[in-house]
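Protocol step 4 of 5: obtain the predicted structure for the target chain.
Materials: sequence only (see below). No template structures provided, no constraints applied. The aim of this step is simply to have a reference model before the mutagenesis design in step 5. Sequence pasted as it appears in the construct record:
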Amino acid sequence: MRYSVRIQNSSGVKADLLVDSIGSYYTDPANIGTTFKSISPTRIADTRSSTSGIRQGKLVAASQASITVPAALDTYATVAYEGTITVANATATTYHTQWKASRTRPGTSDLNTTKGRNRSNGFTTKTAAVASGGSDWGFKVYNCSGSVDVLEDVTGRFEVTPDLIAVSVAQRAPSRTGAAPRVAPALKLASGAVVRGR
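Step 4 output (structure tokens):
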């Protein structure tokens, strides 16, 4: 079955439209997957501050930076976060991209802004080690043109259900906080089933 969404332009003038898909939600009959847990809005990154999860100082043109999720918010089972990303004090028309730290930067934008205009947008992004072999987990962010301040607030996280917790839990980064989830019993994979790692 195919589903669609309707997008309407009510401005009275023509406009270009770009739509990027960042994921999907579906019902799993076996109830094996992820659960969403809300978090009190917490600022994890602010380039105007020296005490947040991103380096201090504006992102200049064609540059990227790492955002580290605080250990107090990160759990052993977390695979993605939801929240709001804001770019402020832009010196030129630019776009911003955020993605899973271990992946190559995608050629799409999460947020677009113009000189002097502050803009925000929601995000749902998978998390990964910000450095190869490291214990800090988070995302990567990129700024195209000019320079901008970047602020990020987390409002929720997605955690794998117990039945998807790998038996080899010792292979995960030991510094991640929270009690280790129970080891799931052995499961048989149905034909065509896929188990994805982080």
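Step 4 remarks: Strands lie at 34-46, 63-68, 78-88, 94-100, 111-113, 119-126, 128-129, 137-143, 149-160. The first strand starts at residue 34 and ends at 46.
Proceed to step 5.
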